[in-house]
Design brief:
Blueprint (H helix, E strand, L loop, with lengths): L9 H16 L1 E5 L6 E5 L11 H18 L18 H8 L17 H9 L2 E3 L5 E3 L2 E2 L5 E5 L2 E4 H9 L9 E4 L12 E4 L1 H14 L3
Antiparallel strand pairs: 1-2, 3-4, 5-6, 6-7, 8-9
Length: 212
Amino acid sequence: MPKLGEHQSLATRKKMVLAWKKRSNEHFKIVCSFCGKIFDVVASRKNRAHFCSQKCQLAELMKRNIARASLKRCSVENCTHKYCAKGFCNFHYMRKRFGTKMDKPLKPSKIPRTKQQKIDRLFSHRKILPNGCWEFIGHISKQGYGRLGIGRKLYKANRLSAILWLGLKEDSPLYALHKCNNRKCFNPQHLYLGTQIDNMRDRKLRNILCPL
């Protein structure tokens, strides 16, 4: 709104107000800086409007931030990881935060990652019985099954054996059932895959043949 002085006449004031209203209602064609779409803006937003929508504005800001972050690298010598915070990558930032030396070498991972490492870990808890059972000698659950932790996952010994040798997938709904009626056993030759119905039928049959 234009400033109206007291010395101006009423007619002059009216002309100024009408001219201001005419300019404010005038529309201009602007090209969006992100998507290239042409959109209309009023005169008051002519020099400030660069995007056709808030979505395009946010997308452009995100694009600039990603490009800016990709150019930054960790300030530690010979480190090629991307910048995270305080001039460091995520790994060296955590070392800086907890006071660990930057040049301290990494310890070799103790988590079994390959199939052979998992087999060796499982065999370190194995006791072979005369009947051929591979009895688990580590932690035993209340239900009588051997349990072994690998990384952050806890497996039943018989299920881990089925995963390694019988091709059972970790997220499979099938069960690793016993032929030998020994819950601690994880010998793949004494296991077979079945459903929950098969498990209950097998349990009922064994209770009849071998009552407690």
